[in-house]
Fold this sequence. Notes:
The complex is a heterodimer. By secondary structure, chain A is an alpha/beta fold. In chain A, 36% of the residues lie in helices and 22% in strands. Chain A has 24 helices and 20 strands. In chain A, strands 6-7-8-3-9-10 form a six-stranded mixed sheet, sandwiched between helices. Chain A has a six-stranded mixed sheet with strand order 16-17-18-13-19-20, sandwiched between helices. Chain A has a four-stranded antiparallel sheet with strand order 2-1-4-5, covered by helices on one side. In chain A, α6 packs across α7 (145-157), α13 (266-274) runs parallel beside α23 and α16 crosses α17 (409-419). Chain A is globular, with a radius of gyration of 25 Å. By secondary structure, chain B is mostly helical. Chain B has a domain at 27-133 and 245-269. Chain B is built from 13 helices and no strands. Chain B has helices spanning 2-10, 13-25, 37-49, 57-73, 78-101, 106-132, 135-144, 149-179, 191-203, 205-225, 228-232, 235-241, 249-268. In chain B, 27% of the residues are buried. At the A-B interface, α3, α5, α15 and α16 of A face α2, α8, α10, α11 and α12 of B.
Amino acid sequence: MSAQVSIENVSFQYPGGVAPVLKNVSLTIEQGDFMAIVGGNGSGKSTLCKLLNGLIPHYYVGDFAGRVIVNGKDTTAYKVADLSKQIGYVYQDFDNQIVAPRVLDDASFAPLNYGDPDYKRKGKEALEMVGLLGYDEEFIWQLSGGQKHLLALAGALAMNPDILIIDEPIAQLDPAHAESLYDILKELNETYGKTIIVIEHHTEFIANYCQKMVLMEAGEILWKKETKEALQLVEELMGRQIYPPQVTQAAYLLDRNKQEHLPVTLEEARQQLKHRLTTGSAVQQAAEIQLRREVLVRIKNVRFSYQTIKRNRKHVLKQLNLDVYKGDVIALVGNNGAGKSSLMRLMTGLVKPDIGDVIVQGKNTRACTPEQLANEITYIYQNPEEMFIDDSVRKDIAFFLKSRNIPDYEKKIEAVLEQFELQDLQNRDGRLMSGGQQRRASLAIGIAMDPSIILLDEPTANLDIATRKHITRLIASMKDKVGAIIIATHDMQLAAELTNRMIVLHDGEVIHDGDRSTVFTHPGLLHRAGLTPPQILQLSQSLNMEVPAYTVAEFIQAWQGKERHHGVHA
Amino acid sequence: MEYTRKWSEKFSVEQVKIELLNTAYGNGHTFLARLDPITLFIWYIFFGIVPWFIHQETILLGMFVFVVITTFIAKVSPLIILILCLGLLSQGGYLLVASLFFGGNLATILPLLVLTLKLSVISLASISVFCSMDPDKLSNGLLKIGFPGQVSFSIAYGYRMLPSLLEEYHHIFLSFRLRGKAPEKKGFLYWRAIVYFCKVAVLSFYPLLLSTSKRARTTVEALETKGSFYGFNHPEVKKLKLANMKMQKHDYLFLGFTAFYLVCLFIFL
């Protein structure tokens, strides 16, 4: 294997920036690699990738030092246009990189611009590679989020580049779609011989798909290692807020002296641990007694549809019945397009059902404006940016309180700022903060409204794992302040750790209403709804442990309980 | 109740978005849409300018009938027609009232009606033409008659962004509603409610501007990597883009028929 990319002692500082974003980094990438770059937000991952297609230093003319050679070309001597033919780039906000209104036009946009007479065929080939063939003439706004992502990928593939860079490929996908996207990347890597570089937080996917792993922190590359080797460094990774796969964490905790090689995939863990497992267990899970409590929201025979661009109606919810009780922490799960967001918007009164009724705290949403319902129910958007309507976080939090002339609202704001650790950020414009900060601010805005029901739409999407854990903790801290929390999410770890009720939506219908134990032990249901249980649960199930473990801590506890029971104290 | 709901649905942001997109892209299958942009430009130049110089009502009426037919063929969205009619009626009505109040009579009204007729011909011609050209076609047409690549790209891109912008605007608007407080009393003729909504509608623009400018960064970078600046500066790319555009038999037939119809108007009326 030859070095396809070599980055030599590169430092870079953005124009107007206060500190260098890259500090003397060196890295080689071999042809045919499948490599993951990990690191916290702001560690310089995206900047590193922009070196390869020459956006740095040609487009961002900052303080640049060092040398970058891609396919034998020194990037300073070639234009972005020349380099881009060999490097495809898919952004994290891929929506903004789609420039043409129709699918095929967008896929063939680059070859056309470079004057390739065969541009249509190239666009089609790219669409075929990502499995979007047959959508040629569709308008981009008719595609789902996942399809748009594939289109952005096709647009990057159309020039037949040798290297493909994808910034957080699965951040907005449900588990089933995430896996199929990685399968496509794998195929591109294995069949078409492309070098693939992903910026990724999900170590479980890294373990399953990537060969190499690069760790970055504060503008420096700490190391580049084979994935299996890299994920052994549990302590170092956790110390830097990177969380290895759950099975690796569990195996590590079980055996801190680390005699054995730690497993990084589910299958490895199963192989390794099954020999050590003996049957029989005394651990009992306390069965939670379900008391029927006060009803906060009642959804009765609701049907909901909206008009599409083609002027026909899309039926999103069909005959939905649902009660939300006081004390519920509900995970609303199901694949993209199952109707989760629509259901939430119905509860806020922003939209009204076609037939049926939505009763929130005794008020029928048909007869109420969203402003009136806002006293009872708060909806936190999936994209926090759309919640920033004023020019500082503090003012955004104050907006609701001020508009209602709540006495002593300043005190309330202080308390909320403290709860969500926003004191230092209170005067910043929400739009200019990092993803995790934005999310915190959006939760603060919601909680300041003092609602009895809070609706969270994908609260952990697009966040690195450390931030995700932080947000999960913050949501947990909201539990006793509100009557009920409903979380629409693809994040099964969040669902398993935090909620006491799980509702599975599929094609506009509730196909299951239970809790984590009834959902995750039901393979048919999981398959139908496109859900993947947390890895640690899969491990505990495949090891036939009687008590399923939903978190690493539960797993360790159950395991050690077992060993203690047999007198093999670990 | 049901009736008002239907109406409020018609005027929701969502509906406006759908109508706009349909006007822009939804009519690709009509006869006019299959014509070459150059044909449509020529046709439009005639119907956009000539009516100003014709004073004979019957000929204008004949042209009016013709553009009504083309509007019908172009399957223009009802909302657009409604807005046009409202515009023409309110303008015509206003002139009528003004002329009657200030001592005019039927003799003053007639020329005003002629003016309204001229305006109708021109507006309907514009609608038929621009509803029949989707933004891609329009931008290619402009490119062909010599506009720079940046201009034609901006048009196509502007339309691609329109739905996303509207959607984002809608979200921000709803953000205001989800946290704001509407006036408790609606006021005489709902004036308090109307003022509240207008205020929110205006305020929603500011966050939209800020977040859009932030997102534009990715787009500009992507355009750079997709070689669009390379494309603007290389004439062979332009040729490639326009390779599919050619005047065909139906283009000549359409222009020929229009000429024949107009000649007939002038001779027989």
